[in-house]
Amino acid sequence: MGAMVAQESEVKQGLSFQLEGDIGLVVFNQVDEPVNTLSPPTGAAFAALLDRAEKDAAVKALVFISGKKDSFVAGAKIDFLQTIKTAAEATATSRDGQRVFDRLEAFPKPVVAAIHGACLGGGLEWALACHYRIATDSPKTTIGLPEVQLGLLPGAGGTQRLPALIGAQAALDLILAGKTVKPSKAKRLGIVDEVVPVPILREVALRRARELVDGTLKVERSHGQGLKAVAQQGKKGGLGGLLMGLANKEMWTEVALEDNPLGRKVLFDQAKKQLRKKTRGKFPAPEKALEAIRVGLESGRAAGLEAEARLFGELVVSDVSKRLVEIFFATTALKKENGTDKADVKARPVKKVGVLGGGLMGGGIAYVSSALQGVPVRVKDKDDAGVGRALKQVQGIFEERVKRRSLTSREAAAKMALVTGGTDYSGFKNVDVVIEAVFEDLTLKRRILGEVEAVTREDCIFASNTSSIPITQLAEGARRPAQIIGMHYFSPVHKMPLLEIITHKGTADWVTATCVEIGKKQGKTVIVVNDGPGFYTSRILAPYMNEAAYLLAEGADIAELDRALVEFGFPVGPITLLDEVGIDVAQKVAPIMEAAFGKRIAAPKAFDKVVADGRLGRKNKKGFYTYDGKKKEVDTSVYELLPHGRERKHLDAQEMAERCALQMVNEAVRCLGEGILRSARDGDVGAIFGLGFPAFLGGPFRYADSLGPAELLRRLEHYHDKYGERFEPAPALVEKVKAGGKFYPG
C-alpha cells in the first residue's frame, strides 16, 4: 500500500485504493451488492478520492477497475431514482453527476478505465470521462447507454461525450435505441481503445497507464472510425441505417453532420421524424435525448449539459418512466424467484432436452435450448421432412447470428452440433425434460405423453407447449402426473421474451422450479400461473380479439381498427396479429374458450366465411392483408366475406381502442380474482412481454390503477349496458371498488 489509502466514506461506497509502483489502482466493489451502481454518495466519495490522488505526488496515473466478477458498473442506482419527488431534484442530481465526471475528464494525470462485464448507463459515462479505455473480449462485457429503456436519458454527460467521441450519427444510433454493443463493436466505433483477454486486463491497464505517463503511448482519436462502423451497420437497417441512407452516403461527412448547420438540421429533423414514427409520441425519452444531443452540437457542451440535466429531471418524474422502472423491478424480482411459494425448493440439473414436433415452435425451442441453455437437444417428428425443417430452422437462426457477428462461425457450429433429430424415440432415454410442441389436440397430446412416459426415466419432466388446453386434463391418466407441466412459448421463440409456465394442482414444486430455471437459462422472463382454460395470456387475448371481430362485424375498416390499437400503444393491431398467428389457430381456440366461459367470451361468427375461404393469414399468404411482396395493405376482397360487405363505417378510433383494451384488462382482473395469477405484477409482466400490452401504461393492472378502479368499473358498465354480457365487470373489480382499494399498494 502507498501513503494514500481510501477514506472511510470511500470504503463505505465500495472504493479501495492501492499504489502499484507509481500507478494508483482504484477498485470499485460495493459490498453485498451483485453489481456496482452509482448514486450521489458514490459520486461524492469518488470526487474526494480524485482530489487526494491529484495532490499525492506519488500517484502519477490512475486505473479504475471493478472488483465484481462479471460487472464493471451497471448504471445508476434505480432505487435511489425512485425516491426523487420533483424534476428540480432530479436535475440537481444530474448536475452533480456531470460535475464529478467533468472533474475526472479534466484530471491532470492519465486515467485508464479497465472494463470487464456490464458497463452500462452511468458506468459508461464514467468510462467515457477517462482518458483511455480497455475492455475484455468476454461475452459478459456489454457496453452501452440503455437509459431510454427506463424512460430516461443519460444524465451524467453521456449525451455530450459519446457524440464528441464517436460522432453524432453513431451516438444517435446507440442512445436513441438504448442499444448495447459487444467489445469488438465498441472498438470499431471508437468507444474503447483496446480489447484484451480477461486474465490480462489488470496487467495491460497498469502498463498503458505507465506508457501514458512517460509519453510512449499517444492517444489519437477521430470520429471517422465511429462513422465508418455505423455506415457498415446501416446496411442492416435501424435508425443508423436509415440516417445513412438519407442521401448518398458519401455526402454525409463529419463536417456535414456536426459543423454544418444545414447538415445538422436535416440529420436531426429526420431522426425526430423517425422517432415519432416508432414511438408515436408515447415514449418521450428518445426525443428528449435527441434534443440534448442537438443542443450540445449547436451551442456547445455547457449548453448541452444544461439541457441534458433539465430534460433528465423532467423524465425521472414522468409517468412513463415510473411505469418502465416498475416493469424493470418486476422482471428483476422474477429472476430471483423459483416459481413456487417455497424459497428453499431447488431446481434439478438439466443436462439434455427432448423436443417433440419440428414445426416453428419446436425448432425455436430447440434453438433456445441449445444456443442459450447450452444443452444437447434431441428433436423428434413424425417424418424426416419434419425433422429436417426443425434442423434447418435452427441452422438459419445461427447463420443470422453469424451474419450479425454476435457469434463466430466456429461458435455457431459447436452449438448447432448440440441439436440432433430423428423420427423415433431414440435419444430420449436419458433426457431430463421433454417439451412437447405438437398440434393443439388433447387426444394427440395424451397419446404422445403415454409414449414418452414409456421410454423415459422415472424422473423425466413432461412439459406441454400448449396455448389453451388445460394441463389438468393432460395429466389425467398419466403415470407421473406430478411431473406434468405447461411451458407456453410465444412465436417466434428466439425473439419473444416471455415464457408462461402453467402448473396444475398436482405439479411437484421441484418440477416447477426446474422449468423456471430452464426458462431463465433460455433468456426468458418467466411467469408461473395456475391451470385453467387459456391459462392467462391466451385467456386475456381471446376477448380482446373477439371485440376486434365484433367491430369488423359492425362495419369497421380493417386499417382504421388496427391503427386505433397501434395508437393506443400495441405494437400491431389485432387484425394484423390475427394474420400473423393464423386465422385457423384462433378458430380452433375459440370453442375451447367458449366451452369454459360461455357466451361472455364467445367469438362472433363474423370470421366463419373468412376461414371457409381458405384464408389462414401470413402462412399461406392469404388473409386480411396482402402478402405479394409489395407494400402490405388490406386485401379489400375480404370485405365480401364480412357483414356489411365493402361498405365500411367510420367508427370512433378512441372507442374502438378502448373496447378492445378494456376487454383485456377486465379479463386480467378475472384471472387475478380466480387465482390463475399469483399477483398483479405477474399479470402486468405477462401482458407486456407476451402480448405487447403498452409498456408505458405499465400493464393491465397498473393501467387499471391509473384510471382508478371506480372509473374502470364505470366504463365497463357503460359498454355492458350498450353491448351486453361480454362486458360484464369482473367480480374482483367490483369488490376492489367496494373496498376502495387499488391493485398495487401505495
UniProtKB/TrEMBL annotation:
Ranges in a coiled coil: none
Enzyme Commission identifier(s): 4.2.1.17
Origin species: Cystobacter fuscus (strain ATCC 25194 / DSM 2262 / NBRC 100088 / M29)
Name of this protein: enoyl-CoA hydratase
Domain 3-hydroxyacyl-CoA dehydrogenase C-terminal: start-end pairs: 534-627, 657-740
The protein's annotated pathway: Lipid metabolism; fatty acid beta-oxidation
Record keywords, A-Z: Fatty acid metabolism, Lipid degradation, Lipid metabolism, Lyase, Multifunctional enzyme, NAD, Oxidoreductase
InterPro entries: 3-OHacyl-CoA_DH_NAD-bd (IPR006176), 3HC_DH_C (IPR006108), 6-PGluconate_DH-like_C_sf (IPR008927), ClpP/crotonase-like_dom_sf (IPR029045), Enoyl-CoA_hyd/isom_CS (IPR018376), Enoyl-CoA_hydra/iso (IPR001753), FA_oxidation_alpha_subunit (IPR050136), NAD(P)-bd_dom_sf (IPR036291)
Domain 3-hydroxyacyl-CoA dehydrogenase NAD binding: 352-531
